[in-house]
Amino acid sequence: MTKTIDPIAIPQPELHAYLLSAVAPRPICFASTIDKEGNVNLSPFSFFNVFSSNPPIMIFSPARSGRDNSLKHTHINVKEVPEVVINIVNYPIVEQMSLSSTAYDKGVNEFVKAGLTQVASEKVKPPRVGEAPVAFECSVTEVIELADTPGSGNLILAKVELIHINEKYLTDDKLDTTKLDLVGRMGGSWYTRSSGDSLFEIPKPIRTKGIGVDALPENIRNSSVLTGNNLGRLGNVEELPTLTEIEKVADHEDIKDLTKKSELHKIAKEVLEAGHTKQALSILMHAEKFN
Ligand SMILES: Cc1cc2nc3c(=O)[nH]c(=O)nc-3n(C[C@H](O)[C@H](O)[C@H](O)COP(=O)(O)O)c2cc1C
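Above: the input record for the complex with flavin mononucleotide. Below: its predicted structure, written as tokens.
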């Protein structure tokens, strides 16, 4: 059964909840801005991403309040002083980031309320968060206001002018995903953490051209043992195994006495999930001979 929703037929807060629970996890832009009097503001926004590396452009969206249609201080500030520091949020600062989202009065400095360190920027006026693993000093190139109704977004286009990286998150001069422990915003009050078992790798099909799931033999595509993820990985091979490769695998002591297709598929799945794609595919092709 599928529930189908027309976005204009439901109240805005309900729509907001569906959108934010489904489009997740979202990275968090911890934005530092100043107003024309020089008052500092720091607030998190998860309507955020990087959209280009040449030029380096990030976009985030402080929306109009769904309750009273008011504008976020961050939105007002970047129109007064078109600069922002986008600080990246990781697990060690997630609670302080959340605290800074409190609706304090205009002019209140959330660095102070959240107990975070203000470090002077080099190219822009707003300071950066000393505790952030990475901070991007940006100029604001454009503000796109989508509508003037409650909940409507305001896209802030920010061009990266300078990048600060805490060196403890580098390995061989590259940002190390296993050290960063980044957090993402989910629906409601849920967050996700990018560490330990939640991290996994998939070989990038950049320089390779996989044969595709459609090119796998039918018995493999229709296997009751293999999952969609298994098929996706198998479809990433550039060619089917040769007869010699299949015969070699068939000779292996764990395989040679097996004569049931489902048993062979189970072994192939284990071999595949251990990272040996071509070998797994050879076992699956060998299994074609049996019922
Ligand atoms: C993790 C997180 C993500 C948020 N993302 C957004 C967002 O994308 N857009 C938005 O308008 N408010 C977002 N909020 C709420 C704002 O941070 C909150 O309204 C804040 O008070 C705005 O501050 P300002 O008025 O000082 O700019 C988010 C809050 C949290 C905790």
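Notes for the reader.
The two ends are 34 Å apart (CA to CA).
The chain has two domains: 7-196, 213-287.
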